[in-house]
User: Which sequence fits this backbone?
């Protein structure tokens, strides 16, 4: 190359630019996700059974309830998880829920997983409102994420 910068010409060994593939955790690998492990595993498995109509309804509810209250709820449940040594479990649960599907409802499932990790702390460390903000879009369509939860309104 005459007069040009040889660094500007890609070589045959230059890797392609763009997003790098990230490993997706296997949703079936046993990992302890805290006291609500069984309910979290059930939530993650249920993503495989979501119909197109359910997916649309969950996604619509998730978009309808977006905003500052959901943002604050995420912060509250993450803070509770961090203070009680469950942040790794919470991140694992959220990633597994989100990665278990390519449907639009996976964001709602991931939010429900965030909240479910600290469900036993609702009322003492986490407000019921924060928990409901994150589980409601999923629960409205698919039912409560925990057997002790009331039906979503």
Assistant:
């Amino acid at each position: 190359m005459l007069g040009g910068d040889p660094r500007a010409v890609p070589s045959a060994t230059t890797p392609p630019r763009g997003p790098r593939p990230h490993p997706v955790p296997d949703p079936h690998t046993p990992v302890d996700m805290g006291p609500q492990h069984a309910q979290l595993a059930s939530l993650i498995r249920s993503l495989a059974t979501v119909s197109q109509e359910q997916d649309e309804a969950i996604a619509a509810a998730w978009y309808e309830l977006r905003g500052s209250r959901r943002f604050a709820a995420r912060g509250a449940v993450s803070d509770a998880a961090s203070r009680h040594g469950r942040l790794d479990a919470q991140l694992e649960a959220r990633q597994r829920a989100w990665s278990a599907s390519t449907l639009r409802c996976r964001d709602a499932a991931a939010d429900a997983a965030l909240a479910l990790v600290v469900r036993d702390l609702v009322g003492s460390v986490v407000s019921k409102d924060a928990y409901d903000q994150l589980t409601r879009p999923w629960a409205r369509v698919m039912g409560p994420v925990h057997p002790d939860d009331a039906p979503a309104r």
Observations:
- The mean pLDDT is 86.
- Residues 33-45+52-142 form one domain.
- The helical segments are 37-46, 52-64, 68-83, 87-99, 106-117, 128-142.
- The chain has six helices and no strands.
